[in-house]
Amino acid sequence: MHVQEWLDTVPAVAVYAVVGLVIGLESLGIPLPGEIILVSAALLSSQHGGIDPVILGACASAGAVIGDSIGYAIGRKGGRPLLAWLGRKFPRHFSEGHIATAERSFQKWGMWAVFFGRFVALLRIFAGPLAGVLRMPYWKFLTANILGGILWAGGTTAVIYYVGVVAESWLKRFSWLGLVAAVLVGVASMLVIRRKAKRAAPAQETAAEPGTVPAAD
Known about the structure:
- The chain is mostly helical.
- It contains 9 helices and no strands.
């Protein structure tokens, strides 16, 4: 079957549901490839007329915000024992070193760690639960969570969608090779976005006052 014909068989509601669910689970603290799923879905929407990129971005944003909020509630209730349990279950993602790095980020940047953490894989998993463990005021967490979630999900969807539209017009004659090339272009764009986010986060540390109050205060 031709690639385009296969893409046309994918139900739009299934794509929306998978994107929202995977990003939501990742955001509440389960190590899943949310960013890869979002990039793939955005590329799919550029070639599948039935998948609306606006709805896709909205579902991704909702998954990010809701997942982070659930993670915050779980972290606030579970406290430090929760982090220890996660370390035993997911040692590669919740090792003591990773937790210490994320905690320092929260103590230095406060709510900005939640905002910029949406663009960094490690902090994206930690943001919700760790903010709850450190008892960051919920209004600060929610503000950064909503802004970061919408900017990350909506921005990634928009960039990858338009990259896919442009790439498809040039590469459609090459069938599956064109799709692979479009995916590579999309992933490259995603990495550029992530690099910019990583550069922006240290800038917040530099600009912070020496007496910055930890996020838990």
